[in-house]
Amino acid sequence: MTNTYDFGLIGLGVMGRNFILNVADNGFAAYGNDLDEEKVNALIEEGGDMDKVNATTDAATFVNGLSTPRKIMLLVPAGKIVDAVIESLLPLLEEGDIIIDGGNSFFTDTDRREAYLAGKGINFFGAGVSGGAKGARLGPSIMPGGNREAYQHVKPIFEAVSAKYKGEPCVAYLGPKSAGNYVKMVHNGIEYGLMQLTSEIYDVLKKGGDFSNTELHTIFSTWNSGRLQSFLVEITSEIFEQKDDLAGGQLVDKILDKAKQKGTGKWTSQNAMDLGIPVPSIDIAVSMREISALKGERIMADALYDRPKVEKMDKKKLGKLSEEALYFSFIITYAQGLHQLGDASKEYDYDLNISEIAKIWRAGCIIRAGLLADITEAFKADRSLPNLLLSPTFVEKVQGTVDAARELVAYGVKNGIPLPGLSNSLTYFDAYTATRLPLNLIQAQRDYFGSHTYERSDREGIFHTEWEA
Known about the structure:
- The protein is built from 20 helices and 11 strands.
- The chain has 3 domains: about 5-175, NAD(P)-binding Rossmann-like Domain (Rossmann fold); about 185-430, N-(1-d-carboxylethyl)-l-norvaline Dehydrogenase, domain 2, CATH 1.10.1040; about 440-469, 6-Phosphogluconate Dehydrogenase, domain 3 (Single alpha-helices involved in coiled-coils or other helix-helix interfaces), CATH 1.20.5.
- The model has no long low-confidence stretch (mean pLDDT about 95).
- With about 475 residues, the chain is α/β, with parallel strands linked by helices.
- It has a 7-stranded mixed β-sheet, sandwiched between helices.
- It has helices spanning about 15-25, 35-45, 60-65, 80-90, 105-120, 130-140, 150-160, 180-210, 215-225, 230-240, 265-275, 280-290, 295-305, 315-345, 355-360, 370-380, 390-400, 400-415, 420-430, 440-450, and strands at about 5-10, 30-35, 55, 70-75, 100, 125-130, 140-145, 165, 170, 455, 460-465.
- Helix 1 (about 15-25) links the parallel strand 1 and strand 2 (about 30-35).
């Protein structure tokens, strides 16, 4: 068998198997490779037609079975495994072949691999893939970055398998080097923020209004039919209906409140600090997952301290405040993530088109939402827009919902209901829209104890004062 298959994929776990079947469904012959013979056989059986989709455990057979330039996608865990797979492929490849890393690799690793492989005549892409296993099968959002000319060989396949929004494929070439992996990293950071905010609104509805799971299903389902339409709100409404087959009742009530993470949200937060871009809604989402892991300590602390007795709020009022506050904080979280993308584009020479990024997030990915259509238009109208909050389109949306966020945060503080994502979003908004902040005092302090100098508001120049003891 030689030069038979259009596309190759290494790593036939759930994501890999679903993605390669998607490729085959869209008219491209696909060849899979995995060391696990069971996964290979499972793909062959599910594919049904080996002329359309096939698999092997042998790397040489796999590579020789691909048309040139070979297009090989890796869906393996990020880190050393990616490097190991690349090294195993190199003796088998030819100049001009293409390797695509479809995992959540850290962007600097992608830059390193691209430079290394370019020296060997091999093209390397980092391509973020969002949508989970279902998205991989039915149409994900794909975020590729790398050599523009080499991407043309991959483009027809990616456009065919990606999700579609009103007929438009949710994939686009984003930029050189690690642009694709970087955009996917920030996508995941925004995802952390939106999930944290959704969980807080669930908490305040349950504690402040005694909403039952049935009522929670109804209210989230209703929201998903309005301006909060999004994948996360949609699946949240469905979660409240899921029955527990083991103990009866609803499953959500039996799930332990310890959230895990794979690190992409943390990477977003860390890199934002490196760039000097504030993303507090994302930062606190990462921190809350870490706090949630301290379950044993939280139980001990709860026994040591008194908590306020929750004053119940009228359900209709609480529901209205919650919808408005969630909408407000969703906007703020997108604004922070997109601000980071804009700054990173300059720092790393990606030349990102934020409107194009928002456009390919409109379907297929985890953070898809109705809001993204408006975000796409906002950055299309002004490609140099530094922050979504400066878009005339979003001023009215924020003005109409910020008061609800204030009221809900105050209610949470008074009643001991933690709303860190919402309060951080509100604080970010208040700080970003403040002409003057009290950081003049911090500059004075720094100059007092460390002679770090300061600038003045009434004249140009750098100043230092010998402060009187």
